């Protein structure tokens, strides 16, 4: 009976020792998997400009008071499955209702930036009609106070069949059901001198 007790005690001690020795390896196998999942979480699409920060003031050269050049824009983390992009810039603070400043669509999903003045825009990008009735960028020129200018980039799962000259409403209707993700960069502007415009 004494030998049996010693044998059982030795067996139990051996099992406990092996369990203690193996525990760190079990933890090492399980926990990194969860950590890796966190590091692999998708980052949201982001739109930025080297000319102004989000909710910062837009430089004068990108407005009707200056040379009226469209600002440089760049974007990252375009979602998988994106086939084309669209961009809308509008001002919801306009006294007569939201004013559309810039409408672009049929932007290639491989393009990741627009240079100042749109110098790098390929010929197949389509311009929509802004609130001035022009197929172009029209910079901020608020009649009074500080206005907010929203540059919104849309990642689409299709290539829109819209021809050039579409209005914002027509573009938004065509995008319905095709928006994978969107992101907005907001810039501010107020007139730097008195004007009658």
Brief description of this entry?
This protein is α+β, with helices and mostly antiparallel strands. Helices cover 23% and strands 26% of the residues.
Question: Main attributes?
Answer:
197 residues, 2 helices, 26% strand, Phosphatidylethanolamine-binding Protein, three-stranded antiparallel beta sheet, 9 strands, alpha+beta, 23% helix, 2 domains, six-stranded mixed beta sheet
Give an account of the 3D structure.
Strand 4 and strand 5 (99-108) form a beta hairpin. The protein has 197 residues and is α+β, with helices and mostly antiparallel strands. The longest helix is centred in the N-terminal third of the chain and has 38 residues, at 2-39. It has a six-stranded mixed β-sheet, with helices on one face. The chain has a three-stranded antiparallel β-sheet with strand order 1-3-6, with no helix packed on it. The radius of gyration is 29 Å and the shape is globular. Mean pLDDT is 86; it is low at 24-39. The chain folds into two domains: 1-41; 46-189, Alpha-Beta Complex (Phosphatidylethanolamine-binding Protein), CATH 3.90.280.10. The protein has helices spanning 2-39, 168-175, and strands at residues 46-48, 56-57, 73-76, 84-91, 99-108, 113-114, 126-127, 147-156, 179-189. Helices cover 23% and strands 26% of the residues. The chain has two helices and nine strands; from the N terminus they run H-E-E-E-E-E-E-E-E-H-E.
């Amino acid at each position: 009976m004494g030998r049996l007790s010693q044998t059982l005690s030795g067996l139990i001690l051996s099992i406990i020792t092996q369990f203690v020795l193996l525990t760190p390896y079990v933890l090492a196998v399980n926990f990194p998997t969860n950590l890796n999942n966190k590091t692999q979480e998708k980052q949201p699409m982001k739109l930025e400009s080297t000319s102004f920060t989000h909710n910062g003031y837009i430089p004068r050269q990108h407005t009707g008071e200056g040379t009226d050049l469209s600002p440089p824009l760049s974007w990252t983390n375009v979602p998988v499955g994106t086939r084309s992009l669209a961009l809308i810039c509008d001002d919801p603070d306009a006294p007569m209702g939201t004013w559309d400043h810039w409408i672009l669509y049929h932007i290639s999903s491989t393009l990741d930036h627009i240079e100042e003045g749109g110098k790098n825009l390929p010929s197949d990008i389509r311009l929509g009609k802004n609130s001035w009735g022009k197929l172009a960028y029209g910079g901020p020129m608020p009649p009074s106070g500080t206005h907010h200018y929203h540059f919104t980039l849309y990642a689409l799962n299709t290539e829109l069949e819209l021809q050039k000259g579409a209005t914002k409403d027509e573009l938004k209707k065509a995008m319905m059901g095709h928006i994978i993700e969107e992101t907005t960069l907001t810039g501010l502007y107020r007139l730097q001198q008195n004007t009658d415009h």
